[in-house]
Amino acid sequence: MQETIRYLLGRAGASGYGSKSTAEDVTKTSPDLHAITAIITGATSGIGEETARVLAMRGARLVLPARNLKAALETKSRIAGELPESEIIVLPLDLSSLSSVRSFVSRFLGLHLPLNLLINNAGKFSHNFELSEDGIEITFATNYLGHFLLTKLLIEKMVETASTTGIEGRIVNVSSGIYTWFSGDGLLYLDLVTRKKIEYDATRTYALSKLANVLHTIELAEKLEEMGANVIANCVHPGIVRTRLTRDREGFLTDLVFAMASKLLKTIPQAAATTCYVAVHPAVAGVTGKYFVDCNEASPSDEVVSMKEAARFWSASEEMTMENTSKEKDKAM
């Protein structure tokens, strides 16, 4: 009850920020970001675009991967209109396609830029069952597996940049509190859904993808520490906000739910705050493998999150990406 009251009132937590803080608020005390190069997925609207705008405001060079290049160029134009000196690069990327992820990484590395910050923000909610070109359920492929491979392929560049510049690298996975809605064996559920052995549940599948983001963060942080890398990884719950993801479900029932929950909704600048806080705030230096809500550390649900499950998902994800690599090679032969 106390947490709910604090959320509604916007009272600050231990970090000095709370649910009413905005992305601009939490980056005011951050160091100048002109030395920072950031990749932000899903930056063509909503939370991702606000994250990009605020980081550009603080001086960061942005690389915006996008499936819809027209939308990404429009985002670039809006930010440049407000911040004429901003440096923004747009590159093609379809996170549901593992070959597209590899192509993006190849193009990015070909630019010979440093990489200090990776924000895995893009999200998809597929109402109907659909498989990616790699045979993976589309929501899981977009929200999680594509980001898993993207991060894996960029780790070496991030470690190298941190070592060369002395600036801590940061990886931010944008999850959602809805991950707690999933229960059961996630990998088994994914397999059964993929093979159409059980009925497709859009909300449960989305929750699984968000749980996978949390588990990815835990195992990634562990591996970075084992490497001795000056790179941290954390995940965030942005809060409840009506973005394009939820507007896609517009209808009487959805409108009624959002009207009733209007006091709980964040504005987009407020929803982008936790991502920006974890991405650049000095107080987060050295903090890794944690889950943040309203710009403060929170405890993930131990009913669905564990080190054992994180390691299990990591191994399965490596197999999924390797298997699809083999499939692509087979097609080319």
How helical, in percent, are the residues?
A: 40-55%
Number of strands: 8
The value of Rg in angstroms is: 19 Å
| Poorly predicted ranges | 245-249, 324-333
Quick one: overall form?
A: globular
Order of helices and strands: HHEHEHEHEHEHHEHHHHEEH
Terminal CA distance reads: 61 Å
Taken as a percent bin, the fraction of beta residues is: 5-15%
**Largest sheet, described in full?**
8 strands, mixed
Strand order of the largest sheet: 3-2-1-4-5-6-7-8
Structural category: alpha/beta
Q: What's the helix count?
A: 13
Mean pLDDT: 90
Describe the structure using short key phrases.
about 325 residues; alpha/beta; eight-stranded mixed beta sheet; 13 helices; about 10% strand; globular; disordered C terminus
Structural description of this entry:
Strands 3-2-1-4-5-6-7-8 form an eight-stranded mixed beta sheet, sandwiched between helices. 50% of the residues lie in helices and 11% in strands. Strand 4 (117-120), helix 6 (138-165) and strand 5 (169-174) form a beta-alpha-beta unit. Residues 245-249 and 324-333 have low confidence and may be disordered. Helix 8 (202-227) packs across helix 13 (307-332). The longest helix is centred in the middle third of the chain and has 28 residues, at 138-165. The protein is built from 13 helices and eight strands. With 333 residues, it is α/β, with parallel strands linked by helices. The protein is globular.
Can you summarize this structure?
50% of the residues lie in helices and 11% in strands. The chain has 333 residues and is α/β, with parallel strands linked by helices.
